Amino acid sequence: MILRHTTKEVKERSALTVNPAKTCQPIGAMYAALGVHGCLPHSHGSQGCCSYHRSTLTRHYKEPVMASTSSFTEGSSVFGGQANLLQAIDNIFGIYDPDIIAVHSTCLSETIGDDLGQIVGKAKDDGKIPEGKHVVQASTPSYVGSHVTGYANMVEAFIKYFSFNTNEKIRQVNLLSGWVEPSDMREIKRITEMMNIKSVLFPDTSDVLDTPMTGKYQMYPKGGTTVDEIVSMGNSMKTVAMGEWCSKKAAIMLDNKCKVPFSLTDIPIGLSATDRFVQALSTAGKVSIPDSISEERGRLVDVITDMHQYLYGKRVALWGDPDTLLPLVEFLVDIDMKPVYIVSGTPGKAFEKRMAEVLGEKVPEAKFKNGPQADMFLMHQWIKEEPVDLLIGNTYGKYISRDEGIPFVRMGFPILDRIGHSYFPTVGYSGAIRILEKMLGVLMDRQDATAPEESFELVM
Ligand code: SF4
Questions:
Q1: pLDDT tens-place string over residues 188-211
Q2: For labelling alongside 406, which of 163, 165, 203, 454 has CA 20 to 30 A away?
Q3: Which ranges carry the Nitrogenase/oxidoreductase component domain (predicted)?
Q4: How far apart are the first and last CA of the chain?
C-alpha cells in the first residue's frame, strides 16, 4: 500500500496536501439543506461534482440522497451557467415539486464568476419560482475552507432568507445544530424536551436521513425543520449555537437581522461540553436542570469510573472537524487519556488557541495542527515517530490502522465502510457512554487478539 512509503521525517510544506483531513464545501451545503423539510439541494456546477457530493452522503448515511445539478457542459463553463440554472429551476419545480431549492455553487461556477444572487433574482423576475416556493442560495467555493464551511454557509443562507422578527417574542429557544448525525439531532431534541424548553432545531436531519422502511419511496420525508419554524427563529428569546465553525455565522446573522442574542457552545460531546450545553439551555430557557438530566450525568460518571483503569494514559490520535474534535479531545483529557496527535483540514485561527487551552498542561507532548497541510500524511508521520494506542476519526484512517496495527474507532464524517453509526448518538451524557464503550471495546479486542496464551483472560 502507498502509505507504507510514508517517511518519519516531517518536512515543512506550504503548498502540497497529501490525503486531506477534510472534504469539499458543497457536501456540507447539501447536508445542511437536507435538514430542511421539503428542500431539494441543487449543485450549480458539473454533474461530476453533484455525483461526488451525493455519493459521499449516500455512502455515509446509507440512504438515497437526492439532489439536482445545473449540468455544466463545455459551453456553460465558457459562457457561464445562468441559462442552465434558470432552466433547472423551471424543471425542478415542474417535475419534483419541492418547497425550496437550496442552490450551492461549486469550484467551477465560482471560478467562472457566476453570481447566484443575480441568477436567482432573474428567475424570480421571469416567473420561474412559483408562488409560495423558495430558492435559497449559498456561495461554496471548494478551494477555500472545507465541508464544514459549506455547511455553515448554507445554514447562514437559510437564516438570512427566512428568519424574520415581527417584534412578537416567542418563549422559544433556537438550537443551531453543528454537523452531527441524525441520531444526535434527535438526542439534542430529547434533552431539550426533558428540560421542558420549547425549541426549534435547525438544521434537523432526523427523519430525513434515517427514515423507517415503509416500502414506499418519499422524495421529501417527514423530517427537517419547516419553513414556518425557520421564520419563527427570528422571534425566539435566544439562540444556542453549537460549534464555532458550523453555527457561529448563522447565530451572528440571527442576532444582526432579528436581534436574537446567542450563546456559543461546543457540540455537546463528552462530560464537560455536555455540562456547558445543558447549562446554556438552562440559561436560555430560564429553567432549572431536572433530576433526570443529573441522573444521566451520574450514569456517565459511573461508567468513567469503571473504565478509568483501562483507559488511563492511553495515547490517542484524532482527525476530523474542529467542532467535533475540540469537545472530544477535552473529554479524553477529562478521563486521563492522552490525545497526542490531532489534525483537521478545516482552517480557522481559533483551532490552535482552543486546542492549546483544552490540552493545557495535562498533555504537553501533544501535537496539533489545522488547515490544508494538516493532513493524514502528517498524522501518519507523527505516528511513525512515536506510536499511539488508539485512532479516532473517519474511515480514511483505516489505512493507518492496518499499516501500523492500531485499534481504530470510527467517528466523524465520512464513514464509508460501516453501517449503523448514524443511528446511535454520541452527543449528550448517554452519547459519551457510547464513545467510552467503543474505545474500550477496540482496546480490549486488541488485548485479546495479541495476549500470550498464559495472559489470555476470561474476566478483564
Ligand atoms: S470540483 Fe470542487 S466542488 Fe466539485 S467535487 Fe471537486 S472540490 Fe467539490
A1: 999 999 999 999 999 999 999 999
A2: 454
A3: 24-443
A4: 35
